[in-house]
Amino acid sequence: METASKVGELQNSPYSLIYDRNEKPFGKTWEEWTEEWWQWVLSIPKDKNPGFDKTGKIFVLDNTDSDVIFLIGNYGGRSERQYVIPAGKALLFPVINFETSFTEEPCLKTDADLKSRAKRDIDDISRKEVEIDGISLNSMDNYRVQSDVFEINYPENNVFDLKPGPTYGISDGYWVFLKPLTVGEHLIHSVGACSLGKTMIECTWRITVV
User: According to a count of CB atoms within 10 Å of the terminal CB, is the N or C end of the chain lower?
Assistant: First the structure.
């Protein structure tokens, strides 16, 4: 039986802020949620895509499921955004992630090729840091998620300037699935980078829950 002090330590753990990697938030696995996240973000044309937004001017609330709000970092570099969100919503966002598809890389011919390509990219990630309201998540290793192969439908003017139409892809990366925040002001900061630092994504979200 756990002592009262041990229970208190668990409750105060930074990991109490996020869903456990083995949980199924709202009945779906992390893998399923990350697939939906990618299908959502890749369906948004470049001129309306929040990944290119530096301030929070472009914010899409009507994504996928009413219980979960998808946040996106950026496609490289730094961004700082301000969002107002309704209370009672979980937040899903990548610290750093990678996606590829048969359309993006025609040299990939099989599902195994996709999986190997995505794994190789994320295996090179050396920096993955998250801070929520001043509380650091010190180890993100347990929050790596590789999806199954899933369908993608690139629109006209898509973020990767690819030929529009359906294809299949896969993703890999480090994610945070944050439980609903309390009403008020919150600050989330994340940084992810590869071993050589050529790929670096840093994002700050200033979130007001109402």
Answer: N
Q: From CA 16, how far away is CA 80, in angstroms rounded?
A: 25
Query: Are 173 and 181 spatial neighbours (Cβ–Cβ below 8 Å)?
Result: no
Residues 203, 70: Cα–Cα separation, whole Å: 14
How far is it, in rounded angstroms, from Cα 27 to Cα 157?
33
* 3-state secondary structure (DSSP) of residue 188: strand
- Break the chain into its structural domains and give their ranges: 4-209
| Residue of 144, 198, 139, 151 lying closest to 31 (CA atoms) | 144
Task: Tokens for 172, please give them.
Answer: 């890999």
- CA 135 to CA 148: how far, in whole Å? 31
What is the amino acid identity at position 33?
W
Q: What is the mean pLDDT of residues 41-45?
A: 94
Q: Are 151 and 166 in contact (CB under 8 A)?
A: yes
Of the candidates 159, 125, 162, the residue with the CA atom closest to the CA atom of residue 145 = 125
Strand-strand pairing, 90-101 and 165-178: antiparallel
DSSP annotation of 104 reads T
| Tokens (6 digits) for 18 | 């996020």
DSSP-derived secondary structure letter, 5? H
pLDDT in tens, 141-196: 999 999 999 999 999 999 999 999 999 999 999 999 999 999 999 999 999 998 77
Place of tokens 């998250």: 130
Please, are residues 119 and 144 in contact by the beta-carbon 8 Å criterion?
A: no
